[in-house]
């Protein structure tokens, strides 16, 4: 018999396992909430993480951000406060006990009003400025997440209770060990907020040539300040960030739209096919043709396989 303290997590396991009946990343009927089930460990996959909280209820995962690796497992949560291109890998799973997790997108526009209520000083010191961090799941945050999952079986409650649960979730995160990350991203005069604007511009214009001076001017920062704070928050320079966006989009184009390597590289901004192939192999561990062929072979017969290429859970 399980310890009574495990009851909330067991209920979360039961809900996710029941609703995510097959392996894959599943969008739910609740806006911003996705659930994830994977019973087979795989190679590193590219992923695009948005501001969100991801909670693992069974299994474990590692996320590579720049040159850093974050590992989190059952009863941990991953807080992401800014859009980040990463590599991710489910590291602990089995058919008997599949990897199960939930991800809820954070709406940054809801943070300022909540801060006005609780006070800007309530969020703890940020410590590291990095836009991604792992923490232990507290009983209060676990309870809030469980009530969010329960709404999946109570669709009539969603219009009334979802805004309240979302506000409580943000409140718990703001009071947690990395709450200042959310506070800073919502404070317009802060450097993290300026970096967020730079990230938004890069995401929209990743295929265009990048001049750091122009980007710094757009977000009202000096070149040296942009470099320093961009790397502190994203673990990458602006050029490295742009490169990851390009390579991830090129891989998606080859997998989902069946473009060849030359056309995919050109479409994301590479003028030299050889440079594209070199950088692709360095990032993904294999040249484009070999990598895409391997992924396609692995996806044969797997439900929801292609969605894993940009998973977040």
UniProtKB/TrEMBL annotation:
Species of provenance: Sinorhizobium medicae
Gene3D superfamilies linked to this entry: Homeodomain-like
Domain HTH araC/xylS-type: 196-294
Keywords noted in UniProt: Transcription, Transcription regulation
Name of protein: AraC family transcriptional regulator
UniProt cross-references to Pfam families, sorted A to Z: AraC_N, HTH_18
Molecular functions (GO terms): DNA-binding transcription factor activity; sequence-specific DNA binding
Cited InterPro entries: Homeodomain-like_sf, HTH_AraC, Tscrpt_reg_HTH_AraC_N
């Amino acid at each position: 018999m399980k310890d009574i303290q495990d009851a909330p997590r067991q209920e979360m396991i039961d809900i996710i396992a029941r609703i995510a009946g097959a392996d894959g990343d599943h969008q739910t009927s609740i806006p911003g909430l996705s659930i994830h089930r994977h019973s087979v460990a795989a190679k590193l996959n590219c992923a695009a993480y948005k501001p969100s909280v991801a909670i693992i209820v069974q299994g474990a995962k590692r996320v590579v951000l720049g040159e850093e690796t974050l590992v989190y497992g059952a009863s941990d949560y991953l807080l992401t406060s800014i859009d980040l291109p990463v590599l991710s890998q489910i590291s602990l799973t089995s058919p008997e006990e599949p990897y199960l997790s939930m991800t809820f997108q954070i709406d940054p526009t809801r943070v300022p009003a909540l801060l006005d209520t609780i006070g800007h000083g309530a969020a703890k010191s940020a410590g590291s400025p990095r836009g991604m961090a792992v923490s232990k799941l507290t009983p209060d945050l676990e309870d809030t997440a469980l009530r969010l999952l329960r709404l999946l079986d109570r669709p009539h409650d969603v219009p009334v209770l979802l805004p309240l649960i979302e506000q409580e979730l943000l409140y718990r995160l703001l009071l947690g060990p990395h709450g200042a990350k959310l506070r800073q991203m919502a404070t317009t005069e802060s450097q993290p907020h300026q970096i967020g604007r730079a990230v938004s511009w890069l995401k929209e214009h990743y295929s265009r040539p990048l001049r750091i001076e122009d980007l710094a001017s757009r977000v009202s920062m000096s070149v040296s300040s942009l470099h320093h704070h961009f790397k502190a928050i994203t673990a990458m320079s602006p050029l490295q960030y742009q490169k990851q966006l390009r390579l991830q989009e090129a891989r998606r184009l080859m997998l989902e739209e069946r473009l060849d390597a030359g056309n995919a590289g050109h479409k994301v901004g590479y003028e030299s096919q050889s440079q594209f192939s070199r950088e692709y192999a360095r990032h993904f561990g294999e040249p484009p043709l070999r990598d895409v062929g391997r992924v396609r072979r692995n996806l044969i017969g797997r439900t929801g396989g292609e969605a894993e290429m940009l998973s977040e859970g």
